[in-house]
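Researcher: Next entry in the queue.
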Amino acid sequence: MVLPVLGRIGRSLLVVLLVTMAVVLLMSLAPGSAAEVILGEAATPQAVAALNAKLGLDQPLWAQYLNWLGDAVRGDLGESPVTGQPVTEAIVERLPVTLQLAVMALLLALVVSVLLAVASALRPNSLLDRAINAVSSVFLSVPAFIAGPLLIYVFALQLGWFPVTGWSRLSDGIGPNLLGALLPAIAIALTEIAAFHRVLRADLIGTLREDFVGAARAKGMSGAYVMLRHALRPSSFSLITLAGINLGRLIGGTVIVESLFALPGLGQLLATSIVTRDVVTVQGVVAFIAVVYVGVNTAVDLSYRLIDPRIRKVAAA
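Model: Structure for this entry, 317 residues:
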């Protein structure tokens, strides 16, 4: 049990290292430099060279990366050469926005997908089931960068139910906060609803064919009771696993939505930092997102071994 856990953690750390190395390499291939962005019109070759030397950007890439990695291990992600703000501080300031969006989108997707999956599984291949599957296919084919503008146009511009852009903190009131967060959360949740619905529907239909469900029906229990009491719980294992994995992905996948709705989250920070060639901030944010994503995936993977003894037996074999 110990060796598989250590091996999984080791692979996770390797993924984080490779991701951060890739960021440094890709940013180095882009034209221009952070020094040129900072200096602006005063970016003479001499001034750029002097600022690069001051920021340590004149060193080889491997030296820059090792210096950053040594500080990152101690919890120091560096200081933005563009804004002068510590990267850790910038992440802490913007994380609540991204985290709220991801959690709201996940909860919304879970509630809607469970309702749709139960309705589909109660009468598989019926007209209702086919209609729900069609809607699910539409959701699955509409990415956030298309859903976001459509939601803004219909519900913000035409109906006026929600603000077009902007963000209200929870300290300003729950109502304004939810009004600003709901449309972006829906834009993120649409594809998750489709994925969750398909997984749970398939598992529910399989569970409803089991003998213990047939025995419950033979006792005169209603279909709704059998579904909620006997079928839904054992069918939710894959759904819960997928939701846990997707939470880590959602935290790092809000870049487009936050930019569309002008939300001050990690996604907008990352997009802005890429435009300004702020390598330090980009590397820090990507490293944080990678750690969260890999951490959640690792936790889900390890929870499999704790919840289902069959997986421990397979791993041991």
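Model: Residues 308-317 have pLDDT under 50 and may be disordered.
Researcher: Noted, moving on.
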